[in-house]
Amino acid sequence: MKINVAIIGAGPAGSSAAIALSKKGIPNILIDKRRTIGLPVQCAEFVSSNINSYVDLNSMLSAVNQKIKYIYINAGNKTYKLSGNGYILNRDIFDLILSEKAVQLGSKLFAGSRVYKIDRQKNCIEVLDVLEKIVYEIYYDYLIIAAGPNNIFKSYNSHRESYIYAVQIKTELLRKLDSVLCYFRNYIPYGYGWVFPKGNHANVGIGVEKPVSDVNLSACLKKFADELRSEGLIGSEVIEKTAGLVPISGLNDLTADNIAFCGDAGGLTHPVTGAGILNAIISGNLAGDYAADSVKASKNFLNDYKEEVESIFKKPFLTACEKRYRLYPLMNDEYGISEIIKFLWPSFEEYYV
Ligand SMILES: Cc1cc2nc3c(=O)[nH]c(=O)nc-3n(C[C@H](O)[C@H](O)[C@H](O)COP(=O)(O)OP(=O)(O)OC[C@H]3O[C@@H](n4cnc5c(N)ncnc54)[C@H](O)[C@@H]3O)c2cc1C
Question: Dihedral sign, CA of 323, 187, 193, 267?
Answer without folding.
Answer: positive
